[in-house]
């Protein structure tokens, strides 16, 4: 093969195989692969053999095309990224032979199994591998020493057993059939910082003992109890959205780094349950919307199924918040002051009521929401956000007054 072939299929300056181009290139190389398995005599009769790709169709320099030199020509290009999604692929044996320099490969939406995907593990430099939406029922692959990202979402995997990649940092097993995590497997992933297990069948967090974890996504499981968090000393973000969780017992003072907790649309029935989070000294953001104690009438459950990028979006959003938070606080306080000037009564000032367009029911709901916010803030005074709203200085003052009133009543 000469450079002419690859230049025709994929421009060199892109250094990346897109979906369409990857399909063309894999198709051509697949035919070449068949040719390399035939004798020179078979090569001379390629026009009568439909399984062999005629050499004169490769380029206009047939005499210079040497099959033995083919790998060298491809190596000269050193493609770094390949995307071949939704192509019904069942065989990728050609990848380690002709694309040895690949760093990232996306083979999502194909028909690969544990056995047929093995050639990918022979890529010596692979760093990121996506095998989402294939036919995996077992996550086992030979250890890949450079692999940092592994995507296996939307398969039929039942456990994390036999996943052993010493430098893996992110593991995506969303929407599989995982029922539990064996703590004896955790030592195999010593550098894991992000674990995504949305939409599985977990009933407890017990067993998730990856001490290096920073981000843990467990939305849409069947979790009813929180256990094992004393091990997760580096955890910063925890998503427990849409679980049948009613008890927040389980956190410890060792979770001092936890900054973000999402328990939206769980089954927490009493706002006092949040007192149990007082051990989380570093907690800054808490998402509570849609629980039993604050569910809105007619609120429809929203599925994360169409939002697989939730973790990425929220990470980006979280990164922006640090730089913008002070400005947002000032804006919120400014709005609050302007709003209070136009309200008629002191109570209306406190709860944002007084808008003539609001019904009594809406006003009552706003008042109850504010009361819940103030109670939670009294338990967790270090919070910066509750749901999407920043905690303002006005709210902090109202919280202090509420505590003083309660103390006076007790006396």
From TrEMBL:
Comp. bias regions, Acidic residues: 297-316
Native organism: Pediculus humanus subsp. corporis (Body louse)
Chain intervals for the UniProt region annotation (Disordered): 297-371
Gene that this sequence comes from: 8233937
Coiled coil: none
InterPro entries in UniProt: Leu-rich_rpt, Leu-rich_rpt_4, Leu-rich_rpt_typical-subtyp, LRR_dom_sf
Alphabetical UniProt keywords: Leucine-rich repeat, Repeat
Official protein name in the record: Protein phosphatase 1 regulatory subunit SDS22, putative
Keyword check for GTP-binding: no
């Amino acid at each position: 093969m000469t450079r002419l072939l690859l230049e025709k299929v994929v421009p060199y300056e892109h250094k990346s195989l897109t979906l369409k181009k990857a399909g063309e290139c894999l198709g051509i190389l697949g035919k070449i692969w068949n040719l390399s398995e035939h004798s020179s005599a078979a090569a001379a009769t390629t026009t009568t053999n439909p399984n062999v790709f005629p050499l004169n169709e490769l380029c206009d320099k047939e005499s210079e095309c040497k099959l033995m030199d083919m790998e060298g020509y491809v190596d000269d290009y050193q493609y770094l990224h390949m995307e071949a999604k939704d192509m019904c692929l069942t065989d990728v044996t050609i990848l380690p032979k002709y694309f040895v320099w690949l760093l990232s490969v996306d083979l999502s939406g194909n028909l690969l199994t544990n056995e047929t995907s093995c050639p990918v593990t022979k890529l010596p430099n692979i760093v990121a591998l996506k095998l989402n939406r294939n036919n995996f029922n077992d996550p086992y692959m030979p250890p890949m020493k450079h692999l940092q990202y592994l995507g296996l979402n939307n398969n039929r995997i039942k456990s994390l057993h036999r996943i052993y990649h010493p430098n893996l940092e992110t593991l995506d097993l969303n929407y599989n059939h995982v029922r539990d995590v064996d703590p004896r497997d955790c030592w195999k992933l010593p550098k894991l910082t992000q674990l995504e297990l949305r939409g599985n069948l977990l009933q407890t967090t017990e067993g998730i003992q990856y001490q290096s974890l920073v981000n843990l996504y467990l939305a849409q499981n069947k979790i009813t109890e929180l256990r094992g968090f004393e091990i997760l000393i580096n955890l910063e973000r925890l998503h427990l959205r849409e679980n049948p969780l009613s008890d927040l017992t389980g956190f410890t003072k060792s979770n001092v780094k936890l900054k973000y907790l999402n328990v939206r649309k769980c089954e927490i029935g009493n706002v006092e349950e949040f007192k149990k989070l007082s051990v989380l000294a570093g907690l800054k953001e808490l998402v509570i919307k849609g629980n039993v104690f604050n569910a809105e009438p007619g609120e429809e459950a929203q599925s994360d199924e169409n939002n697989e990028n939730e973790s990425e979006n929220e990470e980006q959003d979280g990164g922006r918040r640090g730089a913008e938070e002070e400005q947002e606080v000032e804006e919120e306080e400014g709005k609050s002051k302007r709003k209070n000037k136009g309200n008629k009564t002191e109570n209306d000032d406190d709860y944002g009521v007084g808008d003539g367009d609001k019904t009594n029911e809406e006003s009552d709901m706003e008042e109850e929401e504010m009361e819940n916010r103030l109670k939670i803030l009294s338990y967790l005074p270090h919070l910066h956000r509750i749901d999407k709203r920043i905690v303002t200085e006005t709210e902090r003052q109202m919280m202090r007054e509420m505590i003083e009133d309660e103390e006076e009543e007790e006396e």
